[in-house]
TrEMBL record:
Statement: the UniProt record of this protein carries the keyword Acetylation: no
Record-linked InterPro entries: Na+/solute_symporter_sf
Protein name: Bile acid:Na+ symporter, BASS family
TM helices/strands, residue ranges: 12-30, 36-54, 66-90, 96-117, 129-148, 154-177, 198-219, 225-246, 267-292
Species name: Marivita hallyeonensis
UniProt keyword annotations, A-Z: Membrane, Transmembrane, Transmembrane helix
Length: 311
């Protein structure tokens, strides 16, 4: 069993792509899995918490400041700049503009540390960005949510959304840290490989559910789907590659984890509270955005190389 999971972990990038195709070609299965996405994401966080452990995830106090600086820039400053640009261009009312703005305000994708593992990099910096980005999410996202007001509930809905997500994610991660602490053998190489396989399988299953809106749109309006997909590809690739280039030119640490985080956000979190008329087009963007996100470990590994481990 452990050897089979370890094999899946070593080939996890290809399981992600398989999940994309299953989600596209089996819309019935995707619709069945959609209500379970939240639970599956929580289980993935738990597995990742066990895999990384609290000591590696939080690192030293000296690593706190650069992590928070990255979060402030990518989760607050960047979406505010984009929102202002969209308003100047007069396109801020379009569903695509709303989707991109919310995506930029979201914390790191829960699978980001697993992407780093698939690329042969240390998952700990990605876990720090994930945990801390989610912990400060009620603060960093508040200006964006107040400007956009996607749920129509003002400051109350913004705080309710942020605090609920924070509680769920921290609970799952903390449970994983606790299990790792009391079962130290889970830090062994064999157990780590099996955990990587579990995470890859969970990611592949999650993406099937997130693709639930894509199959029907492919049948009803394939041209609209192509436009949504091209926009998702452009946004993701620009964020990932520009962030990696800037980080390396500035000789910043955590270049690869920061690039993964920049382009891969947990936009699906917003679907929990948004009204149907807002959530419907957003779900299309979420589905399309899975394509570049789940290609990230393959494309970014070619650009970044294995290199030294990011700290």
């Amino acid at each position: 069993m452990f050897s089979a999971l370890a094999w899946i972990g070593r080939h996890g990038k290809y399981f992600l792509i398989a999940g994309l195709f299953v989600g596209l070609l089996a819309p019935g299965l995707a619709e069945t899995l959609r209500p379970w996405i939240g639970t599956l994401v929580a289980v993935l966080l738990f597995v990742t918490g066990v895999r990384v452990g609290a000591r590696q995830a939080f690192g030293h106090l000296s690593e706190l400041r650069p992590t928070l600086v990255r979060i402030s820039v990518l989760q607050t400053l960047l979406p505010l700049v984009v929102i202002a640009m969209l308003a100047v261009l007069g396109v801020s009312h379009f569903p695509m503009a709303m989707a991109v703005s919310l995506m930029l305000a979201a914390p790191s994708l829960t699978g980001a540390p697993n992407f780093a593992i698939m690329m042969g990099h240390d998952p700990a910096p990605g876990m720090r960005l994930l945990v801390m980005g989610t912990a400060v999410f009620p603060v960093t996202a508040l200006p964006v949510l107040l400007i956009l007001d996607p749920a129509g509930g003002g400051i109350f809905s913004a705080f309710s959304l942020s605090l609920g997500l924070l509680a769920a994610i921290l609970a799952a991660v903390s449970l994983g840290f606790t299990v790792r602490r009391f079962v130290p053998n889970l830090g062994d190489l064999r157990a780590q490989g099996a955990l990587d396989g579990c995470a890859a399988l969970l990611l592949a299953i999650v993406v099937v559910g997130l693709m639930s809106a894509i199959g029907p749109l492919l049948q009803d309006d394939p041209l609209a789907l192509v436009l949504w997909l091209l926009a998702a590809l452009a946004v993701n690739f620009v964020l990932v590659f520009v962030t990696l280039h800037v980080s390396r030119r500035a000789h910043l640490q955590m270049a690869v984890p920061t690039a993964i985080y920049a382009g891969n956000r947990n936009i699906a979190l917003f679907l929990i509270v948004l009204p149907d008329e807002v959530a419907a087009p957003l779900m299309i963007f979420v589905g399309c955005y899975q394509v570049p996100m789940y290609l990230t470990p393959i494309l970014l590994s070619r650009l970044a190389g294995e290199g030294p481990q990011d700290r």
